Sequence to fold (1007 residues):
Amino acid sequence: MVIDRRHLAIFYAALGLFLSENLLAQNDTVRLETVIVKGFAPEKFMSGLKIQKIDSTTLSQFRFQNIGELLSYHTPIAFKNYGPGQLSTASFRGTSANHTAVLWNGLNINSPTLGQTDFSTIPVAGFDQLSIQYGSAASIVGTDAVGGSILLNSVSQPNGIFAFAAGQLDSFLNNYGQTGARYGTGLTKNWDFSGKTTINYSSMINQFQRRARKGYSFLPSETFQQGLVQDLFFTSKDNQEISAHIWLTKNKMTVVPDDSQNRELTRTEAYRSMVRYQIKNLAFRTSWVRDVIDYAKGDYANLDHAFTDKFSNRAEKDFTFDFGLSEGNVQVKAGAEMTHYRTHVSGYEKSLITETRGDLFMLTRLLANARWLVSANLRQALITKYNPPFTPSLGTEYQLIQNLRYRLKIRGSYARSYRVPTLNERYWKDLGNPDIRPESAWNKEIGFEQRYTSGTTSVFTSSVTAYHNRVKDWTYWNPSRNYHVENLQEVLARGIEVQAGWHGNEGLWNWGADLGYAYNRSSQEKVYDAYSADVIGKQLVFVPIHTMNFNAFLQYKSTRLSSQVQSGSKRFSTFDNSQFLNGYTLTNILIENTVTWDKTKMRIQGQVNNIGNTFYLSVRNYAMPGRSFAVNVIVSYNAPSKGPKYLL
Amino acid sequence: MKMKKQLTRLVLVSLSIFAFACNQSDPAPKGDYVRGVFVINEGNFSQNNGAISFFSREMTNAADDLFKTVNGADFQGGAQGYTVIGDEGFILVDNDKGSDRLEIVNSNTFEKIATIVSPEIENPREIVGSSNKAYISCWGTNADYSYQTGYIAVVDVSTNKVIKKINIGAGPENLVYHNGKLLVGTYSFGGGNTLTIINTATDEIEKTVTLNGVPSPIGVDANGKLWVAASNQAVRMNAETYAVEAVLPIGSDGSKSAENFVFSSDRKNIFFVLSYYNSAGLKAGETYKFDVGATQINLATPLIKRAFTGLAVDPLQSLIYAGVTPNYGQAGYAVRYRTDGSVVDSIKVGVAPTGFFFK
Fold:
């Protein structure tokens, strides 16, 4: 099918992108230099769902920050942020902090006690790849994947040695440092070895020049972080791979540190370890994660200590069937996962709680022909005392137009998702509820994706997605019952996400621009007491209805100018929407230059954060910082392997 | 019903006009908040979203955060108390991270005049005024919640400075100022049974009286008798000698707590709330009334079959104003009742309305 420019423009207008003809006209002979990111295993079965990959350049730009900051500039995920370096939880597609699954190499690393991740404790420096999967994928990844999933992965490294050291200092006297190496070599004729070792630290003391902005005081706080990543891969030529992964993060956050009566310490430590073994179509994974949270107020002599150990084993096998189809095939992944928890939390009814959870799953991917892909997935979770709902999903993708320059794809999904109650919800003394039911949701979505290649060096992409997600038995720490937890609410989240991107290069010039807009309407639908009438139909707290992101860069040789913009409409702070925090837009400008001497490179980057000096408030009603400056330097040494060489 | 409501409104409007007319002889103060009802909304502690809301008596909708509306920023804490001395309004602010303060505003315009910050004012609880001083009960730092660091902060209204702190253990709470004396009660978790009497001429403790319960002074009635609640008892005392004259038990159910004691406008009756947590964990209870001449408190017939988080009587119109807090995550209501317990109307206010101030 041939599509001319006029038709294309009509199509964009129909999508509401209001693209100017001018923009399309500019790049006849441009071709994108794509960043190659390897696929994730679960992604293969996620057809019909929207997946966004974050490129390595962006990961590098945010290398000193936490993952919440990256996601707030690149996705419509809304963060409930208590202040710089403080608690930051996600609302993905209008859901609560408990409805985003965070997976590290396929393992859910949400805190088992809280059922959520504090994104301020996850440094971007801790992983190699980042993907964001929108919408329900519980049939594939399990519990929590109601609003979406954040996928963090480690990958094997090429042969050779790459070593780096990096540091950053900013206006608030916060400083950051990282160093490490990636290495790879042939071991024997049949086996390769590679790995990565990095350490990182941050010291955020937040020395703001003033006590207040526009009549609102800052909340003094300091955060110290340390992290270690160790990955080892042994890969054979006959499709065997053994890998071992360790990821340690320590986060020590103190609010009002100089006030010995009111200071509040939260120390969060995570020890994550994993061994994977894959032989052909059979894969095993075993992991142990320990989460520790220590908390104290005023007097630090008696820390409120909580730890949870999570032991997990997983086995899965892939099958492929041709069924005699001319061009298609069927792939099936069947597997089981068993997880055992041991937890000690001082607020629980018993000092040690243990629980075992099992999961059985079968994922199916039918490639009907070159244009049509279907995936059908089934999962059943099994848990001590009760079982979450049987979780099926059906997704499909169809290439409506597929030619050399232009591709248009329609995709859709209908999926159930669930959330297993957290350990806090089940076992917290008095307020917890041992009879609490798992939440259950049905998510429907449909989307279009298109990609237009103009000439040879420019690519235009865009997508639009509409979704509708109804969550039943939504658990609620009911403020009318002294915060006793109940399956009280029913939440309907629906919205539209639009993305458009343009990337190209010409001669020594490189450029790119990505725009995202999302409409997220998420409301409580069920009456449960006399005053809940004031809450029915109201937007969920701290979920902006409109969000926008814009990221652009322009590069000449090795000098690059980038801008990052995030914008969100007002965030309601009470359930009846009677109070709200104003919407705001934040813009950062980054300029960097890389100098190369033989195998050594040095990148110097300057940042102006919040260049517009926008005033905005944290969820506790304290001022957030205004304009600030940062400078960072990365020195790296890269010696790729010159050819086959065996260590043993 | 509707007609009744309209009639009430008409009466309210004419009453306010009358009140306004009476006031014409004074040089009329200028401002948007000269006459009306100020609601003290405690807010949700961890969100620092307390506020003072306002409505004029004839209205049924409230302006939701006066301080923010007028001054551009809210006061970043819970509102614990509000009173007016002269033309100055004093707001007690309790911040979640210890950044407590006293905001002083022009009471007619709500424009900010001064701020007194922690450690001058720490965990403020209640405020009353004499002619030239404000008295604020504070728990102090109270870091270990033992309620041993409390004091009364004395603020000189002419300089807006704390001029003295009078130490009071066991968590000073409710205050009553009467005739040159400040009566200081304590907080139930503070565990003290001592009513402290401070002479406001010297700002020294003049006397302490031990009662059989946690004392909470109510005030002096139409007969010149002092009333103090002591846990679930109403105690009548001689207002000069502080000798106990009568002890009226309020039921015998220890799981219920009597609170929010307030006089009717003629000071011949006392209203109070008796509340408890029901089997579903919800706060429930009733509101009662007794005559200051009564020899016992009858709990058989409640005045209003509801519990409230705040209770006050408008001296101008004698209506009862009751604060309803559905929970700390949504706006509460001010419900108006006649003194016979019949409801007039309700007005949506801020989060957790716990007190009212009438001008």
About this structure: Residues 5-15 of chain A form the longest helix (11 residues). The radius of gyration of chain A is 25 Å. Residues 1-40 of chain A have pLDDT under 50 and may be disordered. Chain A touches chain B at residues 214-217, 219, 255-256, 259, 261-262, 264, 297-299, 478-482, 484, 529-531, 534-535, 541, 573-576, 578-579, 619-622 (CB under 8 Å).
